[in-house]
Amino acid sequence: MKKTPFEVPNIGEKIRKLREAKSLTQEQMADLLNITQTAYGKIERGESSVSWKRLNQISEIFEKKLSEWIEMDTPAGYSNNLCKIKGNGFVIQPENMPTNERKLYEEQIALLKEQNTYLKEEVDYLRNLLKA
Fold this sequence. Notes:
Blueprint: H1 11-21, H2 26-33, H3 37-44, H4 52-62, H5 66-69, E1 83-86, E2 89-92, H6 99-131
Antiparallel strand pairs: 1-2
Helix pairs in contact: 2-3
């Protein structure tokens, strides 16, 4: 089973919040994922890594796309004084960003780049499988 090659900030906490929002217990989640409650608890506490397959299973249980919940509560620093509209998008103005927020923003960019690289590699791998 292929593991995520990068850490998603607070993934266990995000999973716990969504589980609680659906009024599910850890035991119920474990049953739905076909794992032990102990193994599931380790996921929520961030003590074990989570495969993409498992993240997709969790997404199905929550009836949400992975992209919808994996980024929730991620500090982005997109307040009005930090951004300006340019064309069809916006531009972050780092000079208006406090140092700690700038660091979080830069870490988020690095994480997204890493995720993008990983996903491109997965697409290439799957394309090669189809060619074979």
